[in-house]
Amino acid sequence: QVQLVESGGGLVQPGGSLRLSCTASGSISIINGMAWYRQALGKQRELVAAITSGGSTNYVDSVKGRFTISRSNAKNTVYLQMNSLVPEDTAVYYCNADVTSTARSRIYYWGRGTQVTVSS
């Protein structure tokens, strides 16, 4: 009914930049909060950045000043601009969205993830 699809991952050198996108589609009434999580190999998934429907944001300390989360409500899309990337940013990045469907159910949906690799 509702799907999230991430894109924009890839291989980048330290100091480089990537922009991730996540687009929600399906029977959507509204999207409330949206967020990016990441999971590095052998580690637990962690919240990277989140944005509310009103545009309030928060970030994990390790990415503050380097990453920026934004959203386009018209496009049902959330972005993560990642600058000054370091190898520790290497992970699968997952989109999460708090979605109220047209059937009025409210569910947190997950994307399948996109790989970000920061390496020389």
How would you describe this protein?
The structure is a single chain. It is built from no helices and eleven strands. The chain has 120 residues and is mostly beta strands. Strands 2, 4, 5, 6, 9, 10 and 11 form a seven-stranded mixed β-sheet that branches. Strands 1-3-8-7 form a four-stranded antiparallel β-sheet, with no helix packed on it. The protein is elongated. It starts with a strand and ends with a strand.
How many angstroms does the end-to-end distance come to? 40 Å
What is the helical fraction, as a range of percent?
under 10%
What fraction strand?
A: over 45%
Order of helices and strands: EEEEEEEEEEE
Main beta-sheet strand count, sense and barrel state:
7 strands, mixed
Number of strands: 11
Number of distinct helices: 0
Question: What structural class is derived from the secondary structure elements?
Answer: mainly beta
Low-pLDDT stretches: none
Shape assignment: elongated
Cα Rg: 14 Å
Structure characteristics:
mainly beta, 4-stranded antiparallel sheet, 120 residues
Describe the structure concisely.
The chain is mainly beta and 120 residues long. It has strands spanning 2-7, 10-12, 18-26, 28-39, 46-51, 57-59, 67-72, 77-82, 91-101, 106-110, 114-118.
